[in-house]
Design brief:
Blueprint (H helix, E strand, L loop, with lengths): L11 H23 L3 H14 L10 H22 L4 H5 L8 H13 L3 H12 L4 H8 L3 H18 L2
Helix pairs in contact: 1-2, 1-3, 2-3, 6-8, 7-8
Amino acid sequence: MPIGTEPRRLVDTEFAQFLARSTPAVHGFLRRLCGADADDVLQETMAKVWRLRHSFDATGNGLAWLLQAAFRCHLDHRQRRARQPATAATEDLAAPATPCSAELRDEVSHHLAALPPLERDLLLGFHVHGRSLRDLAAAHRLPLNTVKSHLHRARRRLQEEQP
């Protein structure tokens, strides 16, 4: 941000409209991230960002800010659940055994290897390394919308491969 410029702040109604528009994307993100707990984590996220609404900069990437808050709420939620003692009732309702991290890593590597190299590079650059769309576009010498299209196709291909 240039020196001497203030970030644009939203009034409460504008911020509420932003949250309403962004809720489906955040909920989808959380469903993929934490499954059945997505509704609880979404509620925690919305409460948290509402408390922090005065620190929100409307000139920045609002959805990225919101997804980061959702991810942090997911981590907090996961830590709280891990600290809770298991009871006999919850053990009976526990989900079947999940694959170990090595199996998951192998499966993710397999699916990523099936992507075209450009889509794989863009997907990893954006989601793993946290690079912005503009940075990726400049690094690959592509128009911004082309980068967005490639990312969309890569995500769709990964989603289609899931059982």
